[in-house]
Amino acid sequence: NVTKEGTSENQVSSAQLTAALEAENEHLKEQHEENIEMIQLGMALGVVHHEFNNNIISVRRGISEFRPWAERNQKLYPIYEKIRLGFDHLDGYLRIFTPLSRRLSRKQVEITGKALSSFIREVFTERCEKENIILEITENFINYKTFGFTSTIFPAFVNIIDNAIYWVIKSTVEKKVILDADNNSFIISDTGPGVQTIDMQNIFEFGFSRR
């Protein structure tokens, strides 16, 4: 009986192990497919950014040349302002692609809080003003330095701050996003509702979202 029970237990354990391995293999296959899609998306964005840069100089020059005419024509000036403001807004978001284009070098560089703060202000200042959100950047943040890939760190800040703004808008207290640093790392905090305990283990999983 002992032998039979042992054999039965071994069979159950073997079946469970096989099922677990199959599930893990399926998960890895799905993850691999997602990674391939992200790589392809990154390559497409690289092409878009390259083409945009090749044409944007002409657009900027055209807007600059349009200004003197607009300033001498009261009916024309409001149209010029709409074009300029719309383009500046779009250009600010497209600057996100600039650090991504540096990915080809795959070389770690020194990334300063000063450079990050300038980039973040370019991308988010107008949106924060529109939503009455205070974007506070401390001296500790500006003075902090780290080494890494710009293609990784810059987009990570954009994603985190974009998410922070989304939740801060729902806050009933002062709306604020704070960029700080200690001796070891950059720190991003906000006055939003915070992360639910149930989500803390999953928040950095690829594709996870409560939005």
TrEMBL record:
The keyword Transferase applies. Keywords: Kinase, Transferase. InterPro entries: DHp, HATPase_C_sf. Transmembrane segments: none annotated. One of its GO terms (molecular function) is kinase activity. Pfam families: HEF_HK (PF19191). Residues 40-106 form the Dimerisation and histidine phosphotransfer (DHp) domain. This is HAMP domain-containing histidine kinase. It comes from Acinetobacter baumannii.
